[in-house]
Amino acid sequence: MKPRTKARSLALQVLYECDLTNHSPQAAMEERLKDETLDTNLVKFAYDIINGVFPITRQLDDFIAQHAPEWPLDQVAVIDRNILRIALWEFAVEGCTPVKVAINEAIELAKIFGADSTPRFVNGVLGSLANRQQEIRQKFKKVTSPEDGKTAHQN
């Protein structure tokens, strides 16, 4: 597994755990890092994904639900939902990953963690969402707070 794919995998596992339990993302990540050896930059990348996706899960889910109408979101497997959330955050919210790369990485995670039909499902939903990338980015437009200089997502 490529290093950044491994970091995404780690973030996916943490988000999955948080979806199923009341564990905090921080506690889940700390527990995962006991079993993983990752370069500092990759740990930061995984944290960036977790800290980017976790607070806006509902808003990401709203966009995903619009592009998977035949699958009500509560019927989509938890792992599949989190794969979609990560990719959508990467290419449309944070803009840190090109669309094609984010989709390909999501498909790789789907092959590893999802059911046999998950890669095709993930590809279809993300392909539709990619067409709305600018609209989604506007929804999550970053604003910087003048008081502390920290970046937050306005939605």
From TrEMBL:
Signal sequence segment: none
Classification via SUPFAM superfamilies: NusB-like (SSF48013)
One BP term from GO: transcription antitermination
InterPro entries in UniProt: NusB-like_sf, NusB_fam, NusB_RsmB_TIM44
Keyword presence, Membrane: no
Domain NusB/RsmB/TIM44: 6-130
Superkingdom of the organism of origin: Bacteria
Keywords carried by this UniProt record: RNA-binding, Transcription, Transcription antitermination, Transcription regulation
GO molecular function terms noted in the UniProt entry: RNA binding
Pfam families with a match to the protein in the record: NusB (PF01029)
Gene Ontology cellular component annotations, sorted alphabetically: cytosol
Role of this protein: Involved in transcription antitermination. Required for transcription of ribosomal RNA (rRNA) genes. Binds specifically to the boxA antiterminator sequence of the ribosomal RNA (rrn) operons.
Family: Belongs to the NusB family.
UniProt-listed PANTHER family: ANTITERMINATION NUSB DOMAIN-CONTAINING PROTEIN, N UTILIZATION SUBSTANCE PROTEIN B-RELATED
The protein's name in its UniProt record: Transcription antitermination protein NusB
Source organism of the structure: Bellilinea caldifistulae
Higher taxonomy: Bacteria, Bacillati, Chloroflexota, Anaerolineae, Anaerolineales
